[in-house]
C-alpha cells in the first residue's frame, strides 16, 4: 500500500491505493468485516461516503435506543455491540475502530467498481482509485439522496438533510421537494419563533406524494402566512444569495441563503447492478443473488448486511466476520447461527447434520428447489420443522392461521367435508398446504391431519412472502396451487384435473386498487372473477344513487350472473381495499358447468339468491325508502374506514357513549399502563364511531416491513407485537389507520387501594406524561421506546377489556359480517 | 361469507350490541320486578302484630337484603376501577345497579313499615332516596345526552375544538391590525377574556351574555357603516361564536353526564354512615 488512507482525513490524496480487500460502507457489517481483516493482518481499506462511520445509525435521532435482537443469536465479531443509546454505540465503535487499526478512508463516495477477482478497480468521486483483489459491498439500503441538478447545485449552501430546524434563524431558506420530508422540514423552519423566511417549491400542481395530515398542516401554515408555497415550478439555477425559479408566472428570483433539497433517494440497486451483480428478480423486494459464502455473481465481489437482506445489526456484524474468514480461505467456519438451526432439528427422531438437513429439505420440497443454500439457511432460521404421528391434527377448520406448510416426508389428509372427517383428500410429500390462509388472510378452510408419520416445514407468513418475493418461480407455483385449490373449494373437488389445468392456464391475475371497479353495471362480459385476497362490494344504480347490495369476501366469486343474462352485467362490483382477483374466461366456465351438473346447480342457487336481492331493489325503485339509503351510506362509510380489510374492529355507538373513557382506562390498565386506543379520535357517521384502534387487518400493513419479525398473528386472529420489537417505527409508518404508537413502557403504579385510600400514584388509566417521566428519571437504566398496539387482550381471560369495561354497551367489537349488521341497524333506527 | 366464523368477541355474553338498559333482554329489570312484586305480596298477605315494622320476620329479612344490596351497589365504584381479567361486563353491572337499585324503593320502604320520624333510621332512608333519585337523573342523562353530544361535536375531539378556537384567535389578531385603539381593545378583550367552562353553574348555563367575544361582536356590529371597516373582524368573530357555542354545548353535556354524580356519590357515603348508625343503634336498643 503506497499511501495510508488514515492520513487523508480532510485532504484529497490522488495517489492510487492498492489493497487485498476493499470494503464499501462502514455500517455494522462493513465495520465488522474491516475489524476482522485488521485482526487477521490483511491489507484492507474501509471506504465511507460521509465524514463519519455508520451513517445510517448516525442519522438516527439523538438519544435513540438501539436494540440488540434477536436475543438468542450469538454475536461473533471483533467489534463489540450491545443494546444502548445511539451515542454510546457510535462512540464505542469509533474507539474500537481506531484501536483495531482499521484503515478507514472517509469522504470516499464510490462511483464505480469494475474488474474481477484479483483485479478490481474502484473509482471514487474525488477522482482517486483503489485497486483491490476482493471487494465487500456493505452499503446498506438507504441509498443516495437525489441531487439538485442545476447550475450552482453544488454550492455549499445546498444541503440534503435537516437535523434540527432550530439551528437556523432569520434566514431566507428555499425547500425544494413537496414530499413528506420537504413539507416537514419547511414547517419546522417556518416556526414563527425562528423568524426564517421559508419558500417551499413543488414541481407538480399538488402534493399527491405527501401524507394528507402534512398537506393539511402546510395549507394551514400557508393561510397564516408563515411560509410561501410555489407549485408547478422548477429551480433553474442557483447563485450565492439567490435562486432562479421557472414558475407558471414566469421567472422568479428568490432571495436564498440556504437550500434544503428533499428530492427522494435512488435505491442502491442501480449502483449494485452497475457493478455487474445479478438480482433474484425484477421486483423491488428482490435481493442480489449470493453463494453460501456471500459471493455475488461477480467472482470476488461479496455482499453482506441489509443490502443482502439482513436488516438486523447482529446479523450484519456476524456476516462481516464470516465473509472475511471465507475470503481468507477458512472453509470450515460454521455460521454463527448454526446452534439455532441445530435446535430446530433436535426434536425430530432422525439424526442429520444441519447441512444435510438443509440439503434434504431443499431437494425434497418442490418450492424450495430454486433456493440457493444460503437462502435455504436463512429461510429455515425463520421456519420450523414439525413432526407429526398418524392422525395428529395439523390445522383446524375456521382457525386463524397464515403460515404455509410444506411436506418433506409422509402424507397429510384434508378433511373436505366438515360433517364427515372420513372424507379426505391426500396431499403427498414435496407438496404444500395452507396457502389460501397465507394469501387471503382468511380462516382455514379445512381441517388437515397427518396420514401417517409426517415431517413438515411450517413457514410463517413473513418468511413465505419474502420467499415468494425473492424467488419468482416459487410465487408462480404458489399462485397456481392456490388458484387450483380455490376453484376446487368453490366448484367442488370432483372436477377433472385436465380440464382444471386448462382453465388454470387461461386464468389471469389482476390487482385492483381501493374503489376501482371490477365490473361496471350495463357493460357486456362473461368472465368470472374469484377473489384471492381483499374484498369487494356489489352496488346497483337506482336513480342517481348507488345502492349497496352485498359484500364479497376473499374466497368467493362474482360475475356468474352475466352467464344467465346474455352477458349483460346488472350490478357494479368495486374493490374495498387492495384486492387480487383471478379472471376465468366465461366460455370455459360455461363448458365446465355443462360438464358438471352438480357444480352448475350450486352456481344456479347462488345466482337465484343474488337475483332475489337485485329484483327486490328493482321493485323498490320507485318509492325508494330512506332506510335503504341509510344502509348504503353507512356501509360505504364503514368500507371507507378500512373495515373491508379488518377481521375484528372496535366500533362505538355514539347514541350510547357517555364519553367516560372507561375503554381507554381499561385498555391502559390491562396493558402496562398505555392505552392502545383513542376513543375521541376517528370518524363518525350515523352515530357509528370508528375510534383510532387496530382493525386486525386480513393482510396487516404493519407486518410488511418489520426487521425482527416481531409482528405476528395469534391463533385467534389477533395481530400483536412481541418482545422482539426493536423500536424502528416501520409499522407505525406503514399503518394507514394510525393505530400504532411508539412509547416507553411506564413504570408500575401503586395499587388501586393505595390510590383510593391514600392517594398514592396517578390512579387507574394511562398515567400522565409528567408522572411517567418523573418516575423513569429515578431509574438508572433508560427505557427504550417500542411499538405499542392493540392485541385484542390476547391471553387475558374475558377478552377485550375495552368492551368489558364499557358501562353503557357503546363499545362493541365486530367482524366484517357484523359491520353490515351494524349498518342495517343504523339504517333501521335512524 | 359463511366461511368465516363470527368474531370471537361477538359471541361473548355482555359484548352483544345492546344498551345497558336492554342488557340481556331486560334481565335485571325482570329480576327486580319479580323480587319487588313478591315483597309487596308477602307484605300485603301477612298481618303481623302489633304492625308491620323492621322488627318482624319480614321486616328483618327486607332490612338485611336491602343493607347487603346497598353495600353491593356501592361496589360498582370499585368494579369499574379494578380492571381485572375475567368474564365480567361493566354494562351488566350497570344494568343490575340501576334495576336492583330502583327495587330498593320497594324493599326499603316495606322494611320501614311506613314508620317515619326525626331519627337516624329515617335519615338513612332519606339519604337512600336522595341517592336513588339522583341516580334516576343519571340514567335519564345517560339515555338522552349521548346522541345529542355526538351530533354536536361532529367528529371533533374536545382538544380539536379548543385548537380551532385558538386558531380563530390568531386570525382575529391579524384582522384587528388596521383597527383603531378602542376597537382593537374590544378584539383584544375578546381574545383574552373569553372563557370556556368554569364553575358548576357556568358549565350548565345555556346562554352566556357576559362572553367577551359576544360583547365585542355586538359592539362592532353596531358600528357597521361607520368610519372603520369592521367587516373582516366581525366575520371572524361570528365564526368564533359558532365554535364557542359548540364547545359550550359540549361542556354542558359533559357536565350533565357528570354532575349528578356529585350528589349521588357523597350521598352514598352519607348513606353508608347512616346505615351503620341505624344498624348499630337497632341492635343496641333491641
Describe the fold and architecture:
The complex is a heterodimer of chains A (830) and B (286). The radius of gyration of chain A is 30 Å and the shape is globular. With 830 residues, chain A is an alpha+beta fold. Chain A has 24 helices and 43 strands. In chain A, a hairpin with an 8-residue loop joins strand 23 (412-415) and strand 24. In chain A, 30% of the residues lie in helices and 24% in strands. In chain A, strands 1, 2, 5, 6, 7, 8 and 19 form a seven-stranded mixed β-sheet that branches. In chain A, strands 10-17-11-12-13 form a five-stranded parallel β-sheet, covered by helices on one side. Chain A starts with 16 loop residues before the first strand and ends with a helix. In chain A, helix 16 crosses helix 17 (597-620). Chain B is an all-alpha fold and 286 residues long. Chain B has twelve helices and no strands. Chain B has helices at 8-11, 23-45, 57-74, 76-79, 90-112, 120-153, 158-175, 181-193, 200-204, 212-222, 231-259, 261-284. In chain B, helix 3 packs antiparallel against helix 5. The longest helix of chain B has 34 residues, at 120-153. The chains are: A alpha+beta (830), B mainly alpha (286). At the A-B interface, strand 32, helix 19, strand 37, helix 23 and strand 43 of A face helix 1, helix 5, helix 6 and helix 7 of B.
Short summary of the structure?
With 830 residues, chain A is an alpha+beta fold. Helices cover 30% and strands 24% of the residues of chain A.
Amino acid at each position: 500500500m503506497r499511501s495510508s488512507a488514515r492520513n487523508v482525513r480532510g485532504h484529497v490524496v490522488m495517489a492510487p491505493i492498492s489493497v487485498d480487500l476493499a470494503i464499501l460502507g462502514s455500517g455494522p457489517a462493513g465495520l465488522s468485516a474491516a475489524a476482522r481483516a485488521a485482526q487477521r493482518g490483511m491489507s484492507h481499506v474501509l471506504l465511507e461516503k460521509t465524514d463519519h462511520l455508520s451513517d445510517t445509525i448516525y442519522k438516527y435521532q439523538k438519544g435513540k435506543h438501539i436494540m440488540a435482537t434477536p436475543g438468542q443469536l450469538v454475536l461473533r465479531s471483533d467489534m463489540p455491540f450491545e443494546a444502548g443509546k445511539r451515542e454510546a454505540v457510535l462512540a464505542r465503535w469509533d474507539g474500537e475502530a481506531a484501536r483495531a487499526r482499521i484503515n478507514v478512508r472517509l469522504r470516499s463516495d464510490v462511483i464505480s467498481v469494475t474488474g474481477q477477482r484479483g483485479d478490481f478497480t474502484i473509482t471514487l468521486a474525488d477522482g482517486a482509485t483503489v485497486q483491490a483483489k476482493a471487494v465487500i459491498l456493505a452499503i446498506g439500503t438507504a441509498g443516495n439522496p437525489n441531487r439538485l441538478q442545476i447550475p450552482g447545485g453544488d454550492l455549499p449552501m445546498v444541503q440534503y438533510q435537516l437535523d434540527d430546524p432550530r439551528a437556523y434563524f432569520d434566514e431566507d431558506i428555499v425547500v425544494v421537494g413537496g414530499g413528506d420530508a420537504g413539507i416537514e422540514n419547511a414547517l419546522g423552519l417556518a416556526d414563527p419563533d425562528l423568524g426564517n423566511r421559508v419558500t417551499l417549491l413543488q414541481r407538480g400542481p399538488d402534493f399527491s406524494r405527501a401524507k394528507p395530515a402534512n398537506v393539511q398542516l402546510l395549507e394551514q401554515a400557508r393561510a397564516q402566512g408563515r411560509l410561501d408555497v410555489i407549485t408547478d415550478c422548477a429551480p433553474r439555477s442557483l447563485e450565492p444569495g439567490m435562486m432562479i425559479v421557472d414558475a407558471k408566472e414566469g421567472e422568479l428570483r428568490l432571495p436564498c441563503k440556504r437550500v434544503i433539497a428533499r428530492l427522494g433517494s435512488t435505491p442502491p440497486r442501480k449502483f449494485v447492478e452497475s457493478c455487474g451483480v445479478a438480482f433474484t428478480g425484477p421486483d423491488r423486494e428482490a435481493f442480489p443473488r449470493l453463494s453460501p459464502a456471500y459471493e455475488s455473481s461477480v467472482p470476488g465481489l461479496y455482499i453482506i448486511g441489509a443490502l443482502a437482506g439482513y436488516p438486523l445489526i447482529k446479523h450484519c456484524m456476524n456476516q462481516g466476520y464470516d465473509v472475511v474468514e471465507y475470503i481468507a480461505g477458512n472453509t470450515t467456519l460454521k455460521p454463527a447461527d448454526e446452534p439455532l438451526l441445530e435446535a430446530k432439528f433436535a426434536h425430530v427422531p432422525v439424526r442429520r447434520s444441519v447441512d444435510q438437513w438443509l440439503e434434504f429439505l431443499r431437494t425434497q420440497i418442490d418450492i424450495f428447489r430454486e433456493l440457493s443454500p444460503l437462502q435455504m439457511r436463512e429461510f429455515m432460521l425463520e421456519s420450523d420443522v414439525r413432526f407429526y404421528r398418524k392422525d395428529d391434527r395439523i390445522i383446524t377448520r375456521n382457525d386463524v392461521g397464515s403460515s404455509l406448510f410444506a411436506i418433506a416426508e409422509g402424507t397429510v389428509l384434508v378433511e373436505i367435508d366438515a360433517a364427515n372427517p372420513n372424507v379426505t383428500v391426500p396431499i403427498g410429500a414435496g407438496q404444500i398446504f395452507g396457502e389460501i390462509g397465507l394469501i387471503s388472510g382468511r380462516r382455514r378452510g379445512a381441517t388437515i391431519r397427518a396420514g401417517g408419520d409426517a415431517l413438515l416445514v411450517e413457514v410463517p407468513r413473513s418468511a413465505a412472502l419474502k420467499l415468494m418475493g425473492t424467488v419468482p418461480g416459487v410465487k408462480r407455483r404458489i399462485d397456481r396451487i392456490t388458484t387450483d385449490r380455490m376453484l376446487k373449494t368453490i366448484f367442488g373437488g370432483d372436477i377433472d384435473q385436465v380440464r382444471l389445468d386448462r382453465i388454470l392456464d387461461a386464468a389471469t391475475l389482476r390487482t385492483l386498487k381501493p374503489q376501482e371497479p371490477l365490473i361496471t353495471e350495463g357493460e357486456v362480459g362473461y368472465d368470472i372473477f374469484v377473489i384471492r385476497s381483499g374484498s369487494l362490494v356489489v352496488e346497483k344504480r337506482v336513480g342517481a344513487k348507488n345502492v349497496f347490495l352485498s359484500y364479497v369476501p376473499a374466497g368467493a366469486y362474482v360475475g356468474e350472473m352475466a352467464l344467465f343474462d346474455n352477458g349483460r352485467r346488472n350490478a357494479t362490483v368495486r374493490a374495498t381495499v387492495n384486492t387480487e382477483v383471478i379472471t376465468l374466461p366465461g366460455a370455459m366456465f360455461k363448458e365446465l358447468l355443462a360438464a358438471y351438473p352438480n357444480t352448475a346447480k350450486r352456481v344456479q342457487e347462488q345466482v337465484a339468491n343474488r337475483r332475489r336481492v337485485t329484483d327486490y331493489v328493482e321493485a323498490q325503485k320507485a318509492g325508494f325508502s330512506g332506510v335503504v339509503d341509510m344502509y348504503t351510506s353507512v356501509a360505504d362509510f364503514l368500507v371507507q374506514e378500512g373495515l373491508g380489510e379488518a377481521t375484528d374492529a372496535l366500533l362505538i355507538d355514539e347514541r350510547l357513549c357517555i364519553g367516560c373513557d372507561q375503554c381507554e382506562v381499561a385498555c391502559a390498565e390491562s396493558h402496562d399502563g398505555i392505552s392502545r386506543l383513542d376513543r375521541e379520535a376517528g370518524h363518525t357517521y350515523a352515530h357509528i364511531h370508528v375510534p383510532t384502534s387496530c382493525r386486525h387487518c386480513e393482510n396487516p400493513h404493519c407486518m410488511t416491513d418489520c426487521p425482527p419479525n416481531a409482528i405476528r398473528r395469534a391463533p385467534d386472529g389477533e395481530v400483536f407485537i412481541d418482545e422482539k420489537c426493536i423500536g424502528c417505527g416501520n409499522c407505525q409508518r406503514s399503518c394507514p389507520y394510525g393505530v400504532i404508537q411508539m412509547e416507553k413502557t411506564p413504570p408500575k403504579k401503586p395499587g388501586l387501594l393505595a390510590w383510593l385510600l391514600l392517594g398514592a400514584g396517578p390512579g387507574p388509566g394511562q398515567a400522565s406524561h409528567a408522572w411517567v417521566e418523573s418516575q423513569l428519571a429515578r431509574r438508572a437504566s433508560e427505557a427504550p421506546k417500542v411499538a405499542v398496539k392493540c392485541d385484542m387482550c390476547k391471553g387475558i381471560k374475558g377478552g377485550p377489556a375495552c368492551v368489558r369495561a364499557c358501562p353503557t354497551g357503546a363499545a362493541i367489537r365486530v367482524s366484517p359480517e357484523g359491520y353490515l349488521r351494524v349498518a342495517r341497524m343504523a339504517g333501521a333506527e335512524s | 361469507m359463511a366461511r368465516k366464523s363470527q368474531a370471537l368477541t361477538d359471541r361473548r355474553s355482555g359484548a352483544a350490541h345492546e344498551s345497558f338498559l336492554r342488557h340481556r333482554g331486560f334481565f335485571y329489570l325482570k329480576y327486580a320486578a319479580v323480587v319487588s312484586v313478591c315483597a309487596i305480596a308477602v307484605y300485603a298477605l301477612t298481618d303481623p302484630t302489633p304492625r308491620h315494622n323492621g322488627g318482624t320476620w319480614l321486616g328483618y329479612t327486607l332490612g338485611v337484603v336491602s343493607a347487603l344490596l346497598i353495600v353491593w351497589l356501592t361496589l360498582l365504584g370499585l368494579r369499574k376501577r379494578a380492571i381485572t381479567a375475567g368474564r365480567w361486563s361493566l354494562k351488566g353491572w350497570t344494568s343490575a345497579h340501576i334495576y336492583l337499585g330502583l327495587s330498593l324503593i320497594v324493599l326499603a320502604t316495606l322494611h320501614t313499615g311506613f314508620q317515619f320520624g326525626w331519627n337516624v333510621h329515617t335519615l338513612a332512608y332519606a339519604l337512600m332516596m336522595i341517592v336513588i333519585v339522583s341516580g334516576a337523573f343519571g340514567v335519564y342523562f345517560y339515555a338522552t345526552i349521548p346522541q345529542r353530544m355526538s351530533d354536536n361535536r361532529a367528529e371533533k375531539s374536545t382538544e380539536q375544538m379548543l385548537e380551532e378556537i385558538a386558531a380563530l384567535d390568531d386570525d382575529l389578531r391579524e384582522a384587528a391590525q388596521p383597527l383603531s385603539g378602542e376597537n382593537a381593545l374590544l378584539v383584544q378583550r375578546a381574545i383574552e377574556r373569553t372563557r370556556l367552562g368554569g364553575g358548576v353553574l357556568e358549565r350548565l348555563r345555556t346562554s352566556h351574555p357576559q362572553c367577551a367575544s359576544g360583547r365585542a361582536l355586538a359592539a362592532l356590529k353596531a358600528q357597521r357603516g361607520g368610519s372603520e371597516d369592521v367587516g373582516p373582524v366581525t366575520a371572524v368573530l361570528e365564526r368564533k361564536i359558532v365554535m364557542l357555542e359548540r364547545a359550550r354545548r359540549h361542556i354542558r353535556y359533559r357536565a350533565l353526564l357528570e354532575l349528578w354524580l356529585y350528589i349521588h356519590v357523597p350521598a352514598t357515603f352519607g348513606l353508608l354512615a347512616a346505615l351503620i348508625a341505624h344498624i348499630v343503634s337497632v341492635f343496641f336498643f333491641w
